[in-house]
Amino acid sequence: MSAVTQARPAWGRAPLLIGIIVLAWLLAILAELTGEVQWVHHHQLRVDGLALWASLALFLVAWQVHIAAMMLPSTLPMVGLFQRASAGQRHPALARSGFLGGYLAVWTAFGLAALVAMALLEGLSMHWHWLHHRPEWLAGGVLLLAGAFQFSSLKERCLDKCRAPRAFLLNHYRQGLAGGFALGARHGLFCLGCCWALMLVMFVVGIANLAWMAPLAALMLVEKVARHGRRIVRPTGALLMVLGLLVMLDPAWLPSLVPSATPMHAH
Predict the structure, then answer these.
(1) Quick one: pLDDT at residue 14?
(2) Range of the domain at 127
(3) Which residues contact 104 (CB under 8 A, 6 or more apart)?
(4) Does the keyword Membrane feature in the UniProt annotation (predicted)?
(5) Could you tell me how many helices (H) and strands (E) the chain has, helices first?
(6) What is the pLDDT of residues 205-261, one digit of tens each?
(7) Which of 88, 99, 111, 231 supports an S-S bond with 63, CB 3.0-4.6 Å?
(8) Main-chain dihedrals φ then ψ at residue 173, nearest 5 degrees
(9) 115 lies in a domain?
(10) How far is C-alpha 35 from the geometric centre of its chain's CA atoms?
């Protein structure tokens, strides 16, 4: 563990992960440019023309691309530290795979839970005609929730853990595949605690919707990695709440970002 106490690792210590992040962004951009956004915007429990298992498989693939693009950049400092700490293990590659697997398992579970929740809301809206004809209230409500969460103590506590990867690693480091998985899952839970509300926005506006994906990814990266990232947390929360209110009052405020008819369907 002595390697953990050394200087802050360079992000270049995880070239494979950086390559995955770049590839994920390229896929999202290519989907926009070619008009094939339905493959990466997918966030329905069941897609028309596909069996349920195929719909879930499509979602899981799209969601992994989404997580790679938006969440992995902010975990690179932790990855760099873990790579150095695990270098002396008997099977360092297994430990590192376990870490990444634990991290992705947490975010995959969240994605599936959010997917089911959105499906339930969609089913409710079919029986509650007032909500069915006012989809902007769902979009605006999620923006309000995301904005309000920026002011919460839970957000601040989880940010403290994410912004101190060295201390986190020293307290929770374990060797082996299981130890790596447990560490990755624990780190993923604190990362989820920071960002779940912001990521929930993507289920309303469309997974891999670049107009929202890019600024939200940049926001989460700055919050967790930049020296003065904490200073933007609450101003961003206020901005999101204002946007939420504007959308609820009149969705024409953000016509290109919030679908005006069926926000819970893939584009």
Answers:
(1) 73
(2) 2-253
(3) 64, 67, 184, 188
(4) yes
(5) 11, 0
(6) 776 678 888 999 999 999 999 888 889 999 999 999 999 999 888 877 776 555 443
(7) 111
(8) -65, 130
(9) yes
(10) 23
**Type of residue at 161:** K
Place of tokens 């929360």: 237
In the 8-state DSSP scheme, what is residue 49?
Answer: T
Yes or no: say if 220 and 74 are a contact pair by the CB < 8 Å rule. yes
Compute the distance between CA of residue 201 and CA of residue 140 in angstroms, rounded to an integer. 10
Q: Decide: 149 and 237 in contact? Cβ < 8 Å.
A: yes
Tally of domains in the chain: 1
Q: Which of 25-34, 90-99, 184-193 has the highest mean pLDDT?
A: 184-193
Q: Say how many residues make up the chain.
A: 267
Query: Which 3 state secondary structure label does DSSP give 258?
Result: coil
In the three-class reduction of DSSP (H, G, I as helix; E, B as strand; rest coil), residue 6 is classed as coil
Residue among 144, 136, 155 nearest 257 (CA): 136
Q: What is the band of 131 on the pLDDT scale with cuts at 50, 70, 90?
A: low
Structure tokens at 161: 């853990």
Continuous segment of H or E residues that includes residue 187: helix 176-205
User: Which residue is associated with the tokens 């930049």?
Assistant: 226
In a domain, 216, yes or no: yes
C-alpha dihedral sign at 125, 130, 134, 140: negative
Through-space distance between the first and last CA atoms of the chain, rounded to whole angstroms: 48
Inside any domain, residue 168: yes
Nearest Cα residue to 206 out of 27, 39, 74? 39
Alpha-carbon distance 140 to 145, whole Å?
A: 9
